[in-house]
Write a structure and sequence with these properties.
4 strands, single chain, 2 helices, two-stranded antiparallel ribbon
């Protein structure tokens, strides 16, 4: 009997119970709404070597060396943060 393999993704951080965590980014930053928004916009700026894409519109990606023109705007980021802060 052959069992199916599970897909594993390493694009972003594990979000299980993210609102219950005291810190984010491997313990570098306090987990509050403002810092979480900054992390979602541009994780690579906050933590060099982070593999999470820069998704904030107008944010400079230090790895790609370009500004993201197609990302999420501040209202969309705030919506994502509100959702994540509800994951306890």
């Amino acid at each position: 009997v052959r069992l199916p393999t599970l897909a594993v993704s390493e694009i972003g951080p594990n979000l299980t119970h993210v609102a219950s965590r005291h810190t984010i980014a491997g313990g570098l930053y306090m987990n509050d709404a403002q810092t979480l928004a900054r992390w979602i916009k541009n994780a690579r700026h906050l933590k060099p070597g982070a593999i999470m894409n820069t998704i904030g519109k107008g944010e400079y990606d230090p790895i790609l060396k370009m500004t993201n023109t197609m990302g999420l705007d501040d209202r969309q980021i705030a919506d994502v943060v509100a959702y994540l802060m509800a994951l306890k």
